[in-house]
Write a structure and sequence with these properties.
The complex is a heterodimer of chains A (161) and B (888). Chain A is of the alpha+beta class and 161 residues long. Helices cover 46% and strands 11% of the residues of chain A. Chain A folds into two domains: 8-64, Orthogonal Bundle (Arc Repressor Mutant, subunit A); 76-160, Glutaredoxin, CATH 3.40.30. In chain B, the strands form ten sheets. Chain B has a seven-stranded mixed beta sheet, covered by helices on one side. Chain B has five domains: 3-77, Roll (Ubiquitin-like (UB roll)); 127-266, Alpha-Beta Plaits; 281-356 and 555-735, Rossmann fold, CATH 3.40.50.740; 359-549, 3-Layer(aba) Sandwich (Dimethylsulfoxide Reductase, domain 2), CATH 3.40.228; 777-887, Barwin-like endoglucanases. The termini of chain B are far apart. Chain B is globular. The chains are: A alpha+beta (161), B alpha/beta (888). Chains A and B meet through helix 3 and helix 4 of A and strand 7 of B. The structure holds iron/sulfur cluster (SF4) (3 copies) and FE2/S2 (inorganic) cluster (2 copies). The site of one FE2/S2 (inorganic) cluster (FES) has 12 residues of chain A, from helix 5. One FE2/S2 (inorganic) cluster (FES) binds at residues 34-37, 45-50, 62, 64 of chain B.
């Protein structure tokens, strides 16, 4: 399935729920992101119309928050921490290894939409440094072996599908 | 309000609660540098350039967002502050590209100015120039965001002032910048090229596009925009004697504040058109004895003209000469023009294109309101309780009027639109009442307005006190509306939207914005009647921030009418048939005035065709381009013995003339205009007219003298003096740069003279006219923002001419299918009068069976679709006509 395709009907339904409501933009975007895994660019104009906003404003909010994405993301979103504590504990090499393993640069998504690689400024788990997240799970005290095994685990997931 | 005392740099100052430190400093002439602050925008606090220090606490604060508080001891120039300011500028410069030196913003760049003032030269930081310039194809704006300092002024101007929303910040952190949706070029965004953001940008990130390098203006002069009825205040940048650029002027209380529209901002390059007339011309035999226009000295041109006109008057009588003035010319010029016609030539054959463009509705309302409601300041819209817009698309016709409406809606004012088209205001409307599709676009509109008024009354939301005190005929209207509804019931869609709108309007005073061209389409009178009734029923006429607002199309539509440039109207909005008014003028002018109405525009064309008219004097109008059925007009003009044209361009009409006088454009002369609000604005020349061209009033003054008229009009003041004496509405003309026309006998809607009452108008609902006349489509002729009216000036602006995107006609997608059109091909649109060829675009906002045809483009050829005969009614319904469409 092409992940850039999405159910227009469903989108309209979500938008309709929030029409003319005050302060609705963020919750609406969250619901859209949750439903489709990204905010389809085609959704910007109808969302703006429904909330009486300018389309450029809606776009600005989407691109301001890293929680929203205009591009579809992979099944597994990896967030490697590049915060201070993790940096001290060697997160630079962790990131380098992940990049090599997945053959992805920061911000990229693999062609098969299995992996997206991101970095963050601090995952708030410094005591486990160096850290990373895969979707909603934390992985701490990383070392090369552990990284490879975590990645392998998620690759395996895929094969199980 | 509570007063606060504090000190700034040791000086005791006081201010009011809520004033910002910056505004207090400014009021006390203490300079604080700013980059992101602008008085027309909400405080923002992004750049931190305006830092000040409170001596008591040692706190540093951004003065533009910090309210003054009691006993503060503010310092504006301490070492600490200077260090911070320098660091901020250094950081900004570190991101700045080296193209700074050749930046077209030049010495007007505020960033450079501040850097120089602070003595920041080398920034000694690692340079990190950001972003790339955009490659853009539009002829108006260049964006080089490598020079952007993220002050947010452009975005705030775009959102807060013009409410377009074309741009906003995109991305965050270092990558953040003002961007359009999908980072498209501006021409593929919703940008209207109003240029408001360009004027605000403190750096070279946004600038006007020029054909070549133009340098920076040497000085600035204030003027008034001559492109539409808003009459925006301009600051014109001059180099040598050429106009280099135009920005909104900083005068307080102007109609436009810090905004302009694309015409005001960019179209001034028409002034430098190679087609400008520079010398007087007379048609004379050349070496081969062909009659051609040849340059002559002024004196010769004037003497010859006076001689021939006097001859024609003597041998054929005063009725053989006619005069066509212009709503683009000034008050003074139009006054003098009609005076020459009426006094020197003793004829009422005087009119202008204003008589078929905007003036009909002004006259209608003058009549209905008994001259007691002539003034309508548009800023009141922003304080209105509710706004209703009927058959108007100010987004295109008078953009600054649209800004007022949009800004009002953004603070929660309900907006109701009643229109068959989807206008630029549609996205801002809380309720949109659209008629069910009929072959005749406007047939149902009066019905919709009347039932809206009735529905409001059903909710008891009308103003019964006002109705009984100031009006008559309400009961009649109620019965009339019911019988109208019986004959033509509302559809359920119409019913639903009208109910919604009535809820919003119930119990409120309304500000009604009425299209200036309503009277020029079919059912115009009924629409105007119904609109007037709605205003009365809600008690809105005379209430504060309510009443009737008409965005007039030309810079002096109202002024030309007020000066009596009409065959049946005298200066001061007096009917020619009013003998008291005539007598008064007769004694002032020491002449006899005929009580018989002169020729109107169709009358002039017919009289030329029949040979009764011998001579025509045209000032400031390309008549062949501006009137319907241009080929018929052209043939008619060819029959005349003598044509004098006073214009700024060589054009189709001057080419038929026997004498051509080179006149001046608005920025090149002094004069005054009356805008859509009834505001009279005087202006002085900003640039010199080209060659030997002269101000039009000056030309008229010289001609009057040649004709042996005893009064001398050597200065504009002389003409103003006479207007002040003759026209009570303009009793103080020229005393100030801005003033207001006077209501009739100084009455207001709530104190009409003799206790007269306003009369509810009986709506004469016609039949859905067979405008189609056997044709399959109804054409609606209208203007888009690039080329108002006939587009005579804007089409000579290289920038506007380069913007060719909007010449296509608009059809609804269903009709495009039905006509079996695929997309790119041209179509032929033909009426009983003429035909044009155009490309088309699909517009879902258009009803089936309709085609919207923009005027003012392609030589204004679309005017040929309408007939001269359609002008021969009180409401000249030339903007709708039946047409056939075929593929070619
Ligand atoms: S483009 Fe100009 S006005 Fe807009 S944010 Fe940048 S510097 Fe400010
Ligand atoms: S030119 Fe006008 S409409 Fe376009 S971005 Fe600037 S402010 Fe907005
Ligand atoms: S709104 Fe009218 S007066 Fe103002 S800048 Fe535009 S054309 Fe000129
Ligand atoms: S720095 Fe990595 S979790 Fe805080
Ligand atoms: S001017 Fe005050 S923060 Fe920019």
């Amino acid at each position: 399935m092409d992940p850039t395709q999405f159910d227009r009907h469903k989108l309209d339904e979500i938008i309709e729920d929030y029409r003319d409501r005050k302060w609705a933009l963020i919750p609406l975007l969250q619901e859209v992101q949750e439903e489709f895994g990204f905010v389809p660019p085609e959704a910007i104009v109808p969302i703006a119309e429904a909330l009486n906003m300018f389309a450029s404003q809606v776009q600005g909010v989407i691109t301001f928050y890293s929680g929203f994405s205009l591009k579809p993301k992979g099944r597994c979103v990896l967030r490697v921490c590049r915060g201070t504590a993790c940096h001290v504990k060697g997160s630079r090499s962790i990131l380098r290894l992940v990049k090599k393993e997945l053959d992805l640069e920061e911000g990229q998504t693999s062609n098969d939409y299995q992996f997206t690689l991101e970095t963050v400024a601090c995952l708030g788990a410094c005591f486990l440094a160096p850290t990373m997240m895969v979707n909603k799970d934390y992985y701490g005290r990383l070392n090369p072996t552990k990284v490879v095994s975590v990645l392998g685990e998620h690759r395996k997931d895929k094969e199980d599908d | 309000m509570e007063s606060i005392a504090l000190t700034i740099n040791g000086k005791k100052v006081s201010c009011r609660m809520g004033d910002t430190l910056l505004s207090v400093a400014e009021k006390n002439s203490i300079f604080i540098p700013t980059l992101c602050h602008h008085p027309a925008l909400k405080a923002y606090g992004a750049c931190r350039m305006c830092l000040v220090e409170d001596e008591n606490t040692g706190r540093l604060m951004a003065s533009c967002v910090t309210p003054a508080a009691k006993d503060m001891a503010i310092l504006t120039e301490t070492e600490r502050i200077i260090t911070h300011r320098k660091n901020i500028v250094r950081l900004m410069l570190a991101e700045h590209p080296e193209s700074c030196i050749v930046c077209s913003k030049g010495n007007r760049c505020e960033l450079r100015g501040i850097a120089a003032r602070l003595g920041v030269a080398e920034n000694r930081l690692y340079p990190m120039p950001n972003y790339k310039p955009y490659e853009e194809l539009n002829p108006f704006i260049v964006r080089d965001l490598s020079k952007c300092i993220l002050c947010g002024k452009c975005i705030r101007a775009d959102h807060e002032l013009v409410a377009t929303g074309a741009i906003d910040y995109n991305e965050r952190g270092f990558a953040s910048r003002p961007a359009t949706l999908m980072e498209n070029p501006l021409e593929e965004s919703t940008c209207t090229f109003c240029g408001t953001c360009v004027s605000m940008c403190p750096t070279g990130a946004l600038s006007s596009k020029h054909a070549g390098f133009v340098g920076t203006p040497e000085m600035q002069k204030d003027s008034i925009c001559g492109f539409c009825g808003a009459g925006c205040s301009l600051a014109i940048g001059i180099a040598g004697s050429r106009v280099m650029e135009v920005n909104p002027s900083r005068v307080k209380g102007s109609v436009n504040s810090a905004t302009l529209c694309v015409r005001g901002h960019f179209a001034h390059d028409f002034l430098n058109s190679p087609n400008r007339l520079k010398q007087p011309l007379i048609r004379m035999p050349d070496e081969d004895s062909r009659l051609v226009l040849q340059p002559v000295p002024w004196d010769q041109a004037l003497s010859k003209t006076a001689e021939i006109l006097a001859d024609i008057k003597r041998s054929h009588g005063p009725g053989s000469i006619a005069f066509v003035g212009s709503p683009k010319c000034s008050i003074e010029e139009n006054y003098l023009f009609q005076k020459i016609a009426r006094v020197v030539f003793e004829t009422n054959n005087i009119t202008s294109t204003g008589s078929i463009n905007g003036q009909p509705i002004l006259r209608f309302m003058e009549n209905k309101t008994m001259g007691a409601a002539r003034i309508s300041p548009f800023f009141e819209l922003e304080k209105a309780e509710a706004i209703v817009v009927i058959n108007a698309d100010p987004d295109h016709s008078v953009p600054v009027a649209a800004y007022h409406v949009k800004r009002a809606t953004r603070t929660g004012t309900p907006l109701v639109t009643i229109d068959s088209r989807k206008t630029g205001l549609a996205p801002f409307a809380a309720a949109r009442i659209r008629p069910e599709p009929e072959s005749d676009p406007d047939f149902r509109i009066p019905l919709l307005i009347a039932s809206l008024a009735a529905k409001i009354a059903d909710l008891n939301g009308h103003d019964s006190g006002y109705i009984s005190q100031f009006t008559t005929g309400w009961d009649l209207i109620k019965t009339e509306t019911s019988s109208m509804l019986e004959a033509n019931p509302l559809s359920s869609g119409e019913e639903k939207e009208i109910s919604r709108a009535a809820e919003m309007l119930s119990g409120r005073k309304i500000a009604l914005v009425l299209g200036s061209d309503v009277m020029e389409s079919r059912h115009g009178t009924a629409i105007a009647d119904a609109s007037f009734n709605l205003v009365l029923a809600t008690g809105s006429l005379g209430a504060p921030n309510a009443g009737i607002f008409i965005p007039t199309p030309e810079s002096n539509t109202a002024g030309a009418m007020d000066m009596g440039v009409l065959p049946d109207m005298l200066p001061g909005r007096k009917q020619l048939s009013d003998s008291a008014a005539r007598n008064k003028l007769e004694s002032l002018w020491k002449t006899k005035l005929s009580p018989d109405s002169g020729l109107d525009l169709p009358g002039i064309i017919e009289a030329a065709e029949s040979g009764h008219l011998k001579a025509l004097y045209i000032m400031g109008e390309n008549l062949i381009r501006a009137l319907p059925e241009s080929s018929r007009v052209e043939e008619a003009l060819k029959k005349l013995d003598f044509i004098v044209v006073q214009d700024i361009f060589d054009n189709r009409t001057t080419r038929l003339a026997h004498v051509v006088f080179p006149g001046s454009a608005f920025a090149e002369k002094n004069g005054s205009f009356t805008n859509m609000e009834g505001r009279i604005q005087s202006f002085i020349p900003a640039a010199d007219p080209p060659g030997q061209a002269r101000a039009d009033w000056h030309i008229l003054g010289m001609l009057a003298q040649k004709m042996g008229y005893p009064e001398q009009y050597a200065t504009i003041e002389k003409i103003r003096q006479e207007i002040r004496r003759t026209v009570p509405m303009y009793a103080t003309l020229g005393s100030q740069r801005q003033e207001w026309i006077k209501n009739s006998e100084d009455t207001t809607p709530l104190s009409v003279k003799n206790g007269d009452k306003f009369e509810f108008a009986s709506i004469k609902q016609g039949q859905p006219a067979e405008i189609s006349q056997g044709k399959s489509f109804t054409a609606m002729l209208g203007s888009l923002r690039w080329h108002p009216a006939g587009g005579t000036r804007t089409s000579r602006s290289p920038r506007m001419a380069a913007w060719d995107r909007d010449s296509q006609v608009r059809l609804c997608p269903a009709d495009i299918n039905a006509l079996d059109l695929t997309g790119k091909e041209a179509i032929r649109i033909s009426s009983n009068h003429g035909s044009i060829e155009r490309s088309f675009v699909a517009d879902p906002g258009i009803f089936p069976g309709r085609v919207f045809v923009p005027l003012g483009v392609c030589g204004n050829d679309a005017a040929c679709l309408a007939g001269i005969d359609s002008l021969k009614q009180t409401a000249p319904a030339w903007r709708t006509c039946g047409v056939d469409i075929e593929k070619i």
